[in-house]
Design brief:
five-stranded antiparallel β-sheet; 4 helices; 7 strands; 35% strand; elongated
């Protein structure tokens, strides 16, 4: 979706509200995938000489736990607000995906918010203990390796810690 931010700022338009579904399938996100579609709500309103842009979105993210490699499915509710002045559109200081003509790509805006707000390291739980360094099984499942001698190659790390 394209939004004419330049026109919105210069003509003093009424507030704008758009709700739409954003397709994220096939997008390259770092270490996770986003189920499609994401629900997006975009609003724009004027306050004096600045535009207040708000984007709210709901996204389901799927990844592998960074500690134990178990599947993780986590929902994210993202809400961000930006203030934009006409002078920022004409310079290179605008943080939003705006073209030279002042057109805001709202789809790209939503995708960038997902990239900024979803952590690159996801865990199945805060208490995840990861994998056993001896047998490689998730520690939450338990194993008999806790009482066995650890891999000798890891002894270098023990020496560093002591």
């Amino acid at each position: 979706m394209q939004f004419d931010l330049n026109r919105f700022l210069t003509k003093g338009s009424e507030p704008v509200r758009r709700e739409f579904a954003l397709e994220c399938g096939g997008e390259a996100f770092p270490g996770y995938t986003v189920d499609s579609p994401c629900t997006v709500c975009f609003t724009a309103r004027l306050e004096g000489s600045k535009a207040i842009l708000e984007i709210c979105l709901s996204a389901m993210v799927r990844a592998e736990c960074a500690r134990c490699l178990a599947p993780v499915a986590q929902s994210f509710e993202i809400a961000q607000q930006y203030e934009v002045r006409l002078s920022e559109l004409q310079g290179e200081n605008c943080d939003l995906p705006v073209s030279d003509r002042g057109m805001l790509d709202v789809d790209e805006f939503a995708r960038s918010e997902i990239l900024l707000q979803v952590p690159q390291v996801l865990l199945c739980s805060d208490s995840c203990k990861g994998l056993c360094p001896v047998c490689g099984k998730p520690r939450i499942l338990g194993c008999s390796c806790e009482t066995q001698q650890a891999d000798e190659r890891l002894s270098v790390f023990e020496q560093l810690l002591s």
